[in-house]
Structure formats: structure tokens, C-alpha cells
Amino acid sequence: MKAVALTRYLPIENPESLVDVQLDKPTPKGRDILVEIKAIAVNPVDVKVRAPKDTVEPAPRVLGWDAAGVVQAIGPEVSRFKVGDRVFYAGDITRPGSNSEFQLVDERIVGHMPQSLAFEQAAALPLTAITAWEALFDRLHVPAATSLPGKSILIIGGAGGVGSIAIQLAVKVAGLNVIATASRPESEKWVRELGAQHVINHFGDLSAQLKEQGFDSVDYVLILNDTDHHFPAAAAVVAPQGTICTIVENAAPLDVSLLKAKSAGFVWEFMFTRSMFQTADMEQQGYLLDRVAGLIDNKTIVTTVNQVLSPINAANLRQAHATLETGRVIGKIVLKDF
Known about the structure:
Layout: E1 2-9, E2 19-22, E3 32-42, H1 44-50, E4 53-62, E5 67-74, E6 86-89, E7 102-106, E8 110-112, H2 119-123, H3 126-139, E9 152-156, H4 161-172, E10 177-181, H5 185-194, E11 198-200, H6 206-212, E12 218-223, H7 227-237, E13 238-246, E14 265-268, H8 273-276, H9 284-297, E15 305-309, H10 314-325, E16 332-336
Parallel strand pairs: 9-10, 9-12, 10-11, 12-13, 13-14, 15-16
Antiparallel strand pairs: 1-2, 1-4, 3-5, 3-7, 3-16, 5-6, 6-8
Helix pairs in contact: 3-4, 3-9
Domain Enoyl reductase (ER): 13-335
Family: Belongs to the zinc-containing alcohol dehydrogenase family. Quinone oxidoreductase subfamily.
Organism: Collimonas arenae
């Protein structure tokens, strides 16, 4: 089967950083399904995993953690899917990724694809939708499917992949008052179209800008970029008994003592936790994706694809990685068709 892989971790400008390869087609066992990949999306995790280092892989390593495709075969213990089903998922960071013609994935972390979307539109959703959903409803414990009059959330990095979904879920599922950060006219336009009621600039003084918008504090803060830089401001603006969640690892220790007087909480969201540790509630990701598909099909939320490249090959994946590395991507970059 065709695949895009690496054996060395090189700068993306190097043509050997991602290469076209031929690999054996895998066979499903247990609860695995074999998916024929129709479209994939690229995320910051791809760039982080591929970042230059001295490691050399003994065999080609396939990256990629966003896919939409068709079930081609199922393992003997599979119960949720049958051959021919259209599916979408983010996969498992401990296993070969989705940048290949066929991929094995545990059925518990797979969702039935939205009926109203093409494969390339669906591929933009899984990783960001799972991350945003888990951050809001599992980590911050925002009540789902109910209105919270007066409750507010600051989403730092609103125009990116996760932010684009988090804004929609926060507004349309949870009924929160959303303040999103954006630093350019085009990104401000994007987050407002997705439902953010207020927009501030993450390069400015967050506390002062919030006050200008009428907020002395916010009930929830979701940090989607540069935790080290934004944590002090988040601690300053979060309300007493509020909560901060981040998805971005810190480079230096964070001063969580800033939260003590407020009895405020700080939590992490890492969407690979359930699959990495085979948690007892691992199947919740599959059910979560089914709920997202329903929200898409009833037009409560929309997909966030903003650029589509074709075909799926090393050259186009290198281009997508290079674009992501600029840090100025709005929405999601998707590739379709091998």
C-alpha cells in the first residue's frame, strides 16, 4: 500500500523529512477495523512528532492523526462497525498513523462519519472535535446541552483547529458567552463567524482587554497555544472557583500558587490519553464522535476545513507541515485521495 513516512527527523525543507513509501497492507485482529483512507488532516501534533532530532527509525514510521474513510475489513471482536461503513477518527499516537492507504484502528475510538459531509470535510474534524469536547465537558466540566446564563469562557487561540470547534461547542451546545483571541483581521472574522461574541488580541494585555469588553473575570479559560506565556494572565482573569484548561505542554514550571486564593483549578487535556492508557471509558471517544456527527448533520456546528490539497503524497504533506509551522493557520488543512 502507498504511505508517507519518515525514518529520520529532519527540517521540513529537507525532501527526506517525509517520503513516499510502499508498505504491507495490515490485517485486523481483535477489536481493530481496517479502514481505506480517503482523506486526512494535518495537526500541530504531526509537526511536534516530526520535529528534528537525532533518532533514526529502523523502519518507516507513518504519522497522521485525523482520517475519514471506508471500513474494508473487521476483526473478530468488532461490534460497532461493518464492512462498507464510512468512518472518521483521530487514532492512537502509539500506533502507525493515517498517512497511508489503509490503517488499523480500534473501533472504540472511531465514529460514524457525518452523512452530510464529503470525506475531506469529515477528516478535518476528529482530533480537534475530541480535544475541544473533552476539554470543555470532561476537564472543565462545563454542563452540556444546557444554558448557563452569565457564564463565560476565554478561548486563547480561537482561530486554530481546536479553537474553531471549541467556540462552536461552547456557544451552541453549552450556551456560554465566548471571548476568543485572534490577532489578525482574517482570524477575527473567522472566530466571529463561528459564534464568538467577543474578540481580543492574544498579543495584548488580556486582563485589560477583557475589562474593556465588560469582563472583570471569566469562569473558564481554555489555552490553545503557548501555555508558558499565557498562564499568568489566565490565572489573573479566571474567576474565583473557576478553572483553566490547557492542551499545550509547558517548557518551564507553572506557578499554580497563583490559583490558591481563588480556589481555582488547573487541568490538562490530551486527547490520546484514553487510547494510550486503554482506559475503561475508551469507547467514549467513539460515542463522542457520533454525537459530533449528529451536530454536523443537524447543522448545529460546521466543519472547519479551510484548505484542501490533493493527492495525499509526501510533497503535499511537506507543504502542509511547512504551512502549519508558520503558526498562522486558520481552521484545518486537509489532504484527499492517494
